[in-house]
UniProtKB/TrEMBL annotation:
Organism phylogeny: Bacteria, Bacillati, Actinomycetota, Actinomycetes, Kitasatosporales
Organism of origin: Streptomyces cyaneochromogenes
Name of this chain's protein: Uncharacterized protein
Top-rank taxon, per record: Bacteria
Length: 269
């Protein structure tokens, strides 16, 4: 899902077509056009995406023999994926190299708090759910607050019940499914001391990811471009030993190379 721009500098998103259904020739042509126009392409894809979509992305990258396509599939709920993609679009307007921008995705995931209010956890398999909670999920009217990231946490709803939140200032994005509840906006948001709250459409993959359509999904995030830029530029950058691009971390997001292991000097006999 492509979220609306956060500000006037946010780079527009390019939503790829139905990769699981369209012809391979069309997928190749569309990706080649993006590379020709922009030089490098960062594909942000949910773990809930169908296998056919992921396989097509890998096939396209392989056939184009291109080290200018980065495929990023963080283990985040769909709404958090959309938030992260928008943050990268915000940063794309800055003076960051393609490798640093693509690497920033892994860094920024640490500053997301993502979860949902669920009407049932009977089919939730993305985070640990004990048998007691499973049993309670069959009781009519039961609701559960679930934090999927950064640390899995599950609570059964009750008066003033909340979830552990961020220890820094954030904004909250809320996407409502088929669960009539204002707990996220009236209880969770104040307890997390969010500085702003906005609503968005529920991503198409949310029901499959959470195992139910009776949900309200939410994601707390850093909204300010200046803060995001400072976070990214404060981290040490490295040059990939294989393709030479600047990256953050120990793995190149474009060619997937990792630094060679340093050989330990032999001990003197």
């Amino acid at each position: 899902m492509a979220l609306p721009a956060q500000d006037e500098r946010t780079v527009p998103a390019v939503v790829l077509g139905d990769l699981g259904q369209e012809s391979l020739d069309l997928s190749l042509a569309d990706m080649q056009t993006l590379i020709d126009q922009h030089g490098h392409v960062i594909v942000v894809c949910s773990q809930a995406a169908p296998h056919a979509v992921v396989q097509r992305l890998r096939t396209v990258r392989s056939l184009l023999e291109s080290d200018r396509i980065a495929l990023f599939r963080p283990e985040l709920p769909p709404l958090a994926i959309a938030v992260l993609a928008r943050q990268l679009r915000q940063l794309a307007s800055c003076d960051l190299s393609p490798g640093v921008l693509a690497s920033a995705g892994r860094l920024l995931t640490h500053y997301l708090h993502a979860g949902a209010l669920l009407g049932s956890v009977a089919k939730l398999d993305r985070i640990p759910v004990d048998l007691k909670s499973h049993a309670k999920s069959w009781v009519p009217g039961s609701q559960f607050g679930v934090l999927a990231h950064p640390t899995p946490h599950l609570v059964r709803m009750g008066p003033s019940v909340t979830l552990p939140g961020p220890e820094f200032g954030t904004s909250l994005l809320v996407a409502k499914g088929q669960l009539p509840s204002d707990w996220v906006t009236t209880t969770l948001a104040p307890s997390w001391r969010v500085r702003g709250l906005r609503e968005a459409a529920l991503p198409a993959e949310s029901a499959a990811w959470w195992g139910t359509s009776k949900l309200v999904e939410f994601c707390a995030h850093l909204p300010d471009l200046s803060v995001l830029y400072q976070l990214v530029t404060s981290v040490r950058q490295n040059s990939c030993h294989w393709c030479g691009i600047d990256v953050i971390g120990d793995r190149c997001v474009f060619c997937s190379a990792i630094p060679p292991a340093h050989e330990q000097p032999a001990r003197a006999g």
